[in-house]
User: Fold these one by one.
Assistant:
Number 1:
Amino acid sequence: MDHGGHGMTMDLPPFTLGRALEYSPDLFFLIGCLLALALYGVGVLRLRRRGDEWSVGRTVAFVTGVLTVALVMCTGLNDYGMVMFSAHMIQHMVISMVSPILLLLGAPVTLALRALPVAGQGRKGPRELLLAVLHSRYVRIVTHPAFTIPLFIASLYGLYFTPLFDFLMGSKAGHIAMMVHFLAVGLIFFWPIMGVDPGPHRPNHLMRMLELFAGMPFHAFFGIALMMASEPMVAAYRTPPVSLGIDALTDQNAAGGIAWAFSEIPSVLVLLALVYQWYRSEQRQAKRSDRAAERDGDKELAEYNAYLASLQARSQ
């Protein structure tokens, strides 16, 4: 593979799944993925050593989320993404729509709060700093729907339909920054909706569903716009290398189809997660009510029965 001055692949053979899955690491994301797995593993081990439980499901979700980032950034798909709009769109959709959901289901912030030691009296350690960030005005702003939904939409239209995309694609650092941005926007958007970590905004489950569906139509419209365009809309992909044997407009239409499809798939995943969380919440509430009834001898039910008896006595 021939790499240009920025270390980016300029000449590639025709795209195949096997070539796309070949190991071709981006050093920044490789180190980031390994570091994330290591820190999460240390946290889980610390809990286990002191006898605390940590959900295997959460661990599996987080590890899978990290692996999805590695899949799109540390394989040949990242090389093809520099010259093929469709390959780039797979990267974008996975790292902004799939990876964040899985990472959030892993509850990394909750794990950190439980694993980090409490600082001494009058001192501030990593745990206290993390709590301060969670309760800061900045986090309240960036996790509010009035911020997250416009940011989610602007990350599509404001990036691809302006010269900013071509500017970022012009350097390795710009490309990395763009992918980090996609991941960050996904995390910020989905955190208040279905994240299990503590946060400043935790609306009821119905409102979370409304927040989810408020952003998804714009995602679908973006994909449809690419599919229906009569000419290439992004300068970076107007002249694909001859070695790929592809047409720029056909490749753009494929990219639009990928964007449209991904507006549906994560919605279903998040909806299922929300329904499950709602069910678990109701189950916990029912258990709390049962325990309260056992403690007070079902006082509430006795008072209700007494009220019914008083009504019957008055009617006689």
Number 2:
Amino acid sequence: MVALFSLWPFVNTVVLSFTDSQILRGGSFVGFDNYTRAFADDDFWVATGNSVLYLVVVVPCLVLLPLALAVLVRTHIPGIGFFRSAFYTPVIASAVVVGLIWQWVLRSDGLVNTVLRKLSVISEPVPFLTDSTMLLVSAMIVTVWKGLGYYMVFYLAALGNVSASLYEAAAIDGAGPLRRFFSITVPQVKPMMLLVGTLSAVSALRVFTEIYILGGESGGPGGGSRTLPFLIRQVGLGFSGETGYASALSILLFLLTLVFSLLGRRLAKGDEG
């Protein structure tokens, strides 16, 4: 199963990346022409920049915010079970449904702009979905919102392994909640933070649905909000889809993802050392 659905498609993508094949016809060997074309393609650099920017913004949020959320929902107060379920609900919701909900919230006549106009905060709608930069930021917000509950569960598991005696000793020494958080909680869950950082980085580089739902098939105005997976789909889609070039872009995305994965692994090893 692994060979059929993982190894063979990967090897085939590598082979196709050195050809000029299209959807409806086989291709001939062109060497590194597809890679040379990618490095000279402005669309490739825009998409790569958007993907890296997505990672730089989203990963810190998904490392820190779920940890804070996990600490909060571990408190023993009446009704906390409801909030645990509520925070996890976006995780089990379909990405398409989540995207459509946020599209309704952020469009020009949507909930946010309507409320801001009623409060006389703005006179013109904020272009959440019609400006390339704002669209990218909006997609980041959706990604973070949907991932909070997922990574919160990771941290809840890690926090469950922290000895309560550490907190008791710190409290006896006069450490307040913030001091206990930074001196005990963060060091104890640091390995999990590195794992969450690696997983969220890989997911951020593969983001597609949020951009597609919020920005449409063009990837925002003039395609300015396209990420690498979005560009790969556009290049390889349709009867005239350039399978060879799309495969080369896929390999470049794989290499970019590999770099950040190895970086996370190196940080983890350094932390263990």
Number 3:
Amino acid sequence: MAIAKAERLMNLALCLLGTRRPLSKRELRGSIEAYLEAGSDDAFNRMFERDKDDLRELGLVIETVENLDGDVGYLARRDSNRLPPITLDAEEAAALGLAAKVWQQARLAGAASGALQKLRAAGLPEDVDPFGSHGALEPHIPVHEAAFEPLMLACRDRRPVVFDYRKGNAAQPGTRHVEPWALECWRGHWYLAGWDRDRGAERVFRLSRITGKVRARAGRYTAEVPDVVTVRETVAGWAGEITDRSALIRLRSGAGYPLRSKAVSVRELGDGWDELEIPYGHGLDAWLVEFGPDVVVVEPAELRADVVDRLRAVAKG
């Protein structure tokens, strides 16, 4: 049975690598003897989907292409499946070992283990144990979000996805059509960077705000994937941690300690109020709203207007 499956996988890989155009399921079934012997269409479909997932797990990049008639085809481009010689030193191997430990919290643990074994065969130093202890470093990066695994696979396979996403100031989630680029963890939260097709722009999504299932879609990306995806810098900017100016606010005495910790200066006004100068960056309006009647924005005027708009939206429900 193992030999038969290995031969079937090899034949499928050769078909996908040898074609210049996407091949449909019907064409693949007619080209591979094991598929011709499948008892029914359902049996063939189950066998093909398992084989396709197994090849992707082994590292083959298989593209799913939809033509103008809506028919779906598959191919594996040679330039996408060609690797240069791999050489790793002890420090790089240690980093990969730490990364593998992260995936132990997800169902990708087996894939991470298999990937390290392949790297060892491709040049990982024999005297380095990628799963061994490396000083006092121990990763603590949670991957409990249900959206993590399907998005990780979509990033790997370059597959568009659809999911429902709840913005921080929205009462109901909205549907987003996204071409996923990269996942990154920042301060204990996972974020996805990608191209939002509905808005025609790059966007970053926090995985904990994705509701329901992530659904994969057929077809190619419509936007070019950048060489460098700056997830952390984008999130830090939205969180107000990248600032180029200041805001002046009034804060009730004894309240708003997180704001006080970021203040550049604090001045007592009397009558139970203080005046604070704080760094002003994207997202500050949403943060100030959380303090309710304990905060009054003095300047700049656009920040004051944004806070008022958010408060009115909350009041309307």
Number 4:
Amino acid sequence: MAIAKAERLMNLALCLLGTRRPLSKRELRESVEAYLEAASDDSFNRMFERDKDDLRELGLVIETVESLDGEIGYLARRDSNRLPPITLDAEEAAALGLAAKVWQQARLAGAASGALQKLRAAGLPEDVDPYEAHSALEPRIPVHEAAFEPLMLACRDRRPVVFDYRKANAAQPEPRHVEPWALECWRGHWYLAGFDRDRGAERVFRLSRITGKVRSRGSRFGAPVPDVVTVRETVASWAGETADRSALIRLRAGAGYPLRAKATGVRELGDGWDELEIPYGHGLDAWLVEFGPDVVVLEPAELRADVVDRLRAVAKG
């Protein structure tokens, strides 16, 4: 069975690499012998989707192209799947090994390990062990959101997606049609930056508020993708990193240490409460809600109203 699957994957890869135009599922089924033996269309579709995902996991860049008549086709361009010779010194290998350790608690652990094996096969020096360098450091980035992996693949493959998203001040989720750009981690939370087709503008989505499955759409991006630095700045701004004014809050004594670290002024009020002046930027209301009854917003009035709206939405379930 393993040999048969490997042969099927090889034949599919050769078809995708050898074509100059996108091939439809029908054409691929006629070109790969194992697909002709599929018992039904449903069986073929399941087999093809698994094979396509397996090839992508192996590093093959497969493009999904929609023709003018709406038919979906697939191809793997040779220039997108050709790598120059790889040379790494000991320091570079150590950095890659450290990056791979970051994902040990996430579903990317296997992919990170496999990537290092591919680098070794491509010329990583045999006397360099990327896992041994800086072994005293054990970084971790936990990824618990089910939406992370499909969104990561969609960002990589430049595939638009659809998902249901619940805003912090909304009682029910609503569908979003997004061209995903990049995933960024900020303050322990993962965010997706992309182009919201329904609103015609860039938006940032917190992964923990995505409900249900992330569905891919077979079409191309309609908006230009900014460089990675701009995307990071966008996420930081939406998540509350940039502040242009101050807010005044009451904080329960002994609570809210992240807020205390950001405070520009702290005054003891007595009775177990402190008064803090903190930078006020986009996203501060969502952050304050996370501290529940330990925080009371004093001013400005619009921030207090936003926090109250979010708490009411949470209370409604």
